[in-house]
Hints:
This protein has 106 residues and is mainly beta. The protein has strands at 3-4, 23-31, 37-41, 57-58, 61-62, 66-76, 91-92, 98-104. It is 0% helix and 38% strand. Strands 1, 2, 3, 6, 7 and 8 form a six-stranded mixed β-sheet that branches. It is globular, with a radius of gyration of 14 Å.
Amino acid sequence: PNAFSPTGSCNEVRFFKPAGINLSTYRIEVYNSHGNVIWSSKLLDEEGAPVEQWDGTYKNNMCQQDVYVWKVRATFRDGSIWNNDDAGVRGMLESGQVFGTVSLIR
C-alpha cells in the first residue's frame, strides 16, 4: 500500500503491511522526514510472507499525517533478490535496498 489511515473506520486501511511470499530474508524500515527509523521489521511466517504491520505510531505515540519513506531489502527462497519492478517503486539504492513512500492520513 502507498497510503493508510490508522484512525480510519475501515480496518483494511488502518495499517501499513508489506506484502510478499516465498521470502527467505527480509528487512523493512520506515523513516520520518528527519531520516530517523521509526518502524522496522524482519519477521516472516512459514510461507515467507511479512508478519508485522506498522500502525502509524513511534514509541507508542501517534505519528503526524505526513509522507514517510520506506526501504526494503529481501531475498527469495530461490536466492534471487526482490527488486519490486512491478509495484511502482521509486527506486533502488546501491546497497540493493528498494525504497518508496507511504502516506499516513489522519
